[in-house]
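hiii so um. not sure if this is the right channel but i have a protein structure encoded as tokens and i wanna go backwards to a sequence. like what aa goes where. can anyone help
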């Protein structure tokens, strides 16, 4: 451990002061940009007669959750602000924008606890193009979202009636789960029949004291779409008292029957029992096997001390002890492996932090809040990635520490940016709200360049100096030992491929619930389950990776580092294969846009999962290897 290089780096007074000032200024700017939504938030308290704003947000086909557009892409009533200016917008935080939200004042008049009789929003004369837009939207089951007092409200644009069905006259869907139930039996695009648009909206607003508790929207008064006709869009408001407390108003959006089903509890119990069984089995097998190995190697050492021939003793050696002179040799592509291990450790800490923060703060209630917390925590935990990467690279006497640092800072963000750039290009082509604005890109780049990157650099320097000294239990021989041919099931490729099966089995059911919450309009709130499943995944990954590493070393293959990482990371491949099955059989998504976003977002999710589990598996295998070679006598 050489502190002089650290002192020289930190001792560059003017340069370091400039970097620190830049870092602090950037952190403050980003904090202000990320938290801009909280500066204008109401306290959710109203006096009788106070104005309440209804925001229109987005519209899109029900079967394609990410394919959303500006509400006024459809020829609804044109909204204008005061003096004919643009309507008032409400800009949210970073995560809210990334989720594709754009809140615009509806200009509908709402007064707290004042009923509003049927009122006219506007009268629109439909031309052929307007009718075409509305018909296409209704045939594709377009829904829209409003927001009042941070409560989302959903409704459908219209209704299609064919020869075999009758007109219902209205649709009421106050939560996304109710909307899904309404669409369960009517999800096929229709061509014939008559298309009706709902022209009246009834808002039933419940309140408790001076707070709004819930909003129900009923779309009714269907009118046929005919070019040249005048459509009058109207609305009414009814206020009703309720005993529901303000702190429990979001519970109506949670699908308890789905997430707390007996299958969910059974899957958690099943995974927990798998952990106990697997941990006990691995411990028993390895302890018995290693005890025999240690006894055998101890007898060989005693024979050598008593004057046995060296050649005869070496011929009796077999298994993992035989590769003690190569097992701690630096792996191929050391900078890349260092970066992956560092990023994976950072991601594991990041996932744990986000889960705990979400449980403590109930962040699932806010639009995009979890995404904002995830991005912010990723930037702030970058020090961990740099520290782990720099220390690992230095312990293996890596010379290209700058390359390892750059890969740690840019590999995962760069791959995510590449996927996001491709998806953003598609979204721009479709004029969708899913397209990330340029200003948001600038904010993310500032967070990476001014917070994440300096922290990775600082962590790399600290890691190289504080944990970079080699501490291998065995010396590395100058000439690598040739690797003998092994059975097919003991080759690195098969160990890597099969290593992810049991970890995937332990999270299979929870993966279904997570996918359903993302792609089927359900709010995922059981983060206690998620934390438990994450712990189970960590334990199962550690056990499987240790067993695979032992088999590989026993086959006298000393190149275990990449195999350990790939074996643990392969669970992400199984999750991605499952996503293909889920897309084909569990969803009714259609179109190029939604297909790109589904597999693009899933690729980013699996990329993060693979790096995280790969690093966890490698750390467990590394601790196991050091433990067994520290307890044997070698020359």
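sure thing!! here u go:
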């Amino acid at each position: 451990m050489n502190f002089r290089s650290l002192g020289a780096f930190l001792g560059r007074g003017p340069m370091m002061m400039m970097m620190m000032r830049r870092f602090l200024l950037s952190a403050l700017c980003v904090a202000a940009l990320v938290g801009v939504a909280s500066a204008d938030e109401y306290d959710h308290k109203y006096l009788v007669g106070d104005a309440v704003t209804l925001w229109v947000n987005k519209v899109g086909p029900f079967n394609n959750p990410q394919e959303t557009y500006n509400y006024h892409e459809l020829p609804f009533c044109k909204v204008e602000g005061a003096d004919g200016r643009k309507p008032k917008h409400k800009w949210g935080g970073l995560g809210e924008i990334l989720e594709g939200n754009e809140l615009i004042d509806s200009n509908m008049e709402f007064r707290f606890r004042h009923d509003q009789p049927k009122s006219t929003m506007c009268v629109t004369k439909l031309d052929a193009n307007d009718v075409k837009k509305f018909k296409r939207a209704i045939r594709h089951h377009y829904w829209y979202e409003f927001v009042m007092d941070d409560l989302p409200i959903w409704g459908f644009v219209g209704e299609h009636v064919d020869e075999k069905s009758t007109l219902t006259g209205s649709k009421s869907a106050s939560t996304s789960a109710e909307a899904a139930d309404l669409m369960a039996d009517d999800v096929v695009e229709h061509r014939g029949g008559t298309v009706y648009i709902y022209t009246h909206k009834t808002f039933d607003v419940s309140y408790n004291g001076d707070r709004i508790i819930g909003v129900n929207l009923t779309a009714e008064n269907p009118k046929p779409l005919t070019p040249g006709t005048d459509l009058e869009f109207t609305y009414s408001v009814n206020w009703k008292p309720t005993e529901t407390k303000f702190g429990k108003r979001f519970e109506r959006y949670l699908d308890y029957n789905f997430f707390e089903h007996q299958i969910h509890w059974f899957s958690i119990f099943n995974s927990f029992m798998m952990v106990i069984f697997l941990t006990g089995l691995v411990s028993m097998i390895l302890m018995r096997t290693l005890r025999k190995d240690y006894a055998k190697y101890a007898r060989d050492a005693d024979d050598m001390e008593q004057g046995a021939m060296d050649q005869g003793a070496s011929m009796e050696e077999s298994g993992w002890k035989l590769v003690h002179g190569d097992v701690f040799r630096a792996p191929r592509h050391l900078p890349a492996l260092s970066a992956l291990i560092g990023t994976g450790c950072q991601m594991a800490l990041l996932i744990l932090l986000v889960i705990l923060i979400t449980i403590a703060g109930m962040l699932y209630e806010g639009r995009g809040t979890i995404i904002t917390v995830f991005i912010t925590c990723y930037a702030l935990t970058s020090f961990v990635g740099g520290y782990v990467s720099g220390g690992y690279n230095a312990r293996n006497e890596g010379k290209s520490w700058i390359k390892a640092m750059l890969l740690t800072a840019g590999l995962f963000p760069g791959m995510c940016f590449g996927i996001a750039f491709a998806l953003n290009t598609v979204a721009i082509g479709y004029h969708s709200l899913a397209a990330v604005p340029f200003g948001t890109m600038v904010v993310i780049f500032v967070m990476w360049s001014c917070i994440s990157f300096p922290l990775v650099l600082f962590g790399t320097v600290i890691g190289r100096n504080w944990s970079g000294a080699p501490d291998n239990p065995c010396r590395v021989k100058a000439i690598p030992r040739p690797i003998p041919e092994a059975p097919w099931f003991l080759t690195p490729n098969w160990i890597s491929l099969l290593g992810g099966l049991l970890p995937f089995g332990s999270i299979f059911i929870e993966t279904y619930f997570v996918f359903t919450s993302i792609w089927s309009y359900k709010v995922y709130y059981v983060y206690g389950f998620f934390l438990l499943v994450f712990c189970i995944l960590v334990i199962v990954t550690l056990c499987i990776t240790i067993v695979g590493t032992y088999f590989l070393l026993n086959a006298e293959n000393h190149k275990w580092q990449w195999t350990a990482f790939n074996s643990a990371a392969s669970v992400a491949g199984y999750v991605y294969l499952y996503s293909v099955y889920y897309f084909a059989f569990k969803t009714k998504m259609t179109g190029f846009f939604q297909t790109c976003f589904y597999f693009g977002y899933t690729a980013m999710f699996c990329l993060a999962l693979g790096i995280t589990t790969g690093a966890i598996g490698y750390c467990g295998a590394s601790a196991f290897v050091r433990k067994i070679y520290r307890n044997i006598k070698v020359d």
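oh and The longest helix spans residues 262-305.
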